[in-house]
């Protein structure tokens, strides 16, 4: 699943490890989500969105060009 | 979603999901093996395997499958993504394997002191083989984790 997690995380100067600690997963899981290799549960999506101060739409909604 | 198996599963949801998949796959292989053993023991007398061997086979097919899938998944060392961290962890794995060999021999000496050179060599040999297997498994898991994590940076 394509998403904007990596872009928004970098904008806030947070590392994968820091974000992982804050939402209670491993750094690998954050990496997999950012690379579209793992679809997180809604619960984790919300936790990530809260940490990045974004809405679910802004992070995970695909907009077709 | 919680079940009685939850206490065996990691907190990280990706690892939890993957381990559940491996357990389910292992269970399917186990059922297929048991069906095969049942058919062979009932209808093909030439292929009859005794009960003890069948149970041993069933247990190890399940445990072995789940264990191998977990080791090759690259999930174990989720934070090893740099050369420096990899080298440091590799040294730790090596020292753990050496410690295993030493502790194994010490414990063995405490409870069963060898009477002959043959027993001494046997004990040392078993501990070295155990240490090598431990190192190989840990090394494989670490390498897979490192390769996977590097791609995700």
UniProtKB/TrEMBL annotation, chain A:
<keyword id="KW-0238">DNA-binding</keyword>
<dbReference type="InterPro" id="IPR010982">
    <property type="entry name" value="Lambda_DNA-bd_dom_sf"/>
</dbReference>
<feature type="domain" description="HTH cro/C1-type">
    <location>
        <begin position="5"/>
        <end position="59"/>
    </location>
</feature>
<dbReference type="Pfam" id="PF01381">
    <property type="entry name" value="HTH_3"/>
</dbReference>
<dbReference type="InterPro" id="IPR001387">
    <property type="entry name" value="Cro/C1-type_HTH"/>
</dbReference>
<dbReference type="GO" id="GO:0003677">
    <property type="term" value="F:DNA binding"/>
</dbReference>
<protein>
    <submittedName>
        <fullName>Transcriptional regulator</fullName>
    </submittedName>
</protein>
Automatic annotation (TrEMBL), chain B:
<keyword id="KW-1133">Transmembrane helix</keyword>
<feature type="transmembrane region" description="Helical">
    <location>
        <begin position="53"/>
        <end position="72"/>
    </location>
</feature>
<feature type="transmembrane region" description="Helical">
    <location>
        <begin position="93"/>
        <end position="114"/>
    </location>
</feature>
<feature type="transmembrane region" description="Helical">
    <location>
        <begin position="120"/>
        <end position="140"/>
    </location>
</feature>
<keyword id="KW-0472">Membrane</keyword>
<feature type="transmembrane region" description="Helical">
    <location>
        <begin position="20"/>
        <end position="41"/>
    </location>
</feature>
<protein>
    <recommendedName>
        <fullName>DUF3278 domain-containing protein</fullName>
    </recommendedName>
</protein>
<keyword id="KW-0812">Transmembrane</keyword>
